[in-house]
Specification:
Elements (H helix, E strand, L loop, with lengths): L1 E5 L4 H13 L7 E4 L2 E8 L4 H6 L5 E5 L4 E6 L2 E6 L8
Antiparallel strand pairs: 1-3, 1-6, 2-3, 4-5, 5-6
Length: 90
């Protein structure tokens, strides 16, 4: 799965920029700012990453079922996990 990290601990801010983040073209390991929030294309994570993170009490797991996207929130970061085949609109 492809991982995009969004560095904020504010759900409202994340929610406001979520669609813009998905439509922002990012090369692997590229960092950009979206409305003043740092966004980083973190590369790929292993398939068992979500299962490992679910076991941590400080991690919130959200699922966007119609798009097969998983969002993890922990500390000051949201991680958007996209299937490798997901084509982000550029």
């Amino acid at each position: 799965m492809k991982c995009i990290s969004v560095y904020t601990n504010n759900f409202e801010v994340f929610s406001d920029i979520y669609e813009k983040v998905l439509s922002t073209p990012l090369a692997e390991n590229e960092e950009k700012q979206v409305e003043g929030v740092v966004v980083f294309e973190s590369g790929s994570v292993p398939e068992n990453y979500v299962d490992r993170m679910k076991q941590r009490p400080e991690v919130v797991v959200m699922k966007v079922r119609d798009r097969d996207i998983t969002i993890l929130q922990h500390r000051n970061v949201f991680e958007i996990l996209l299937p490798e085949t997901e084509s982000v609109v550029h």
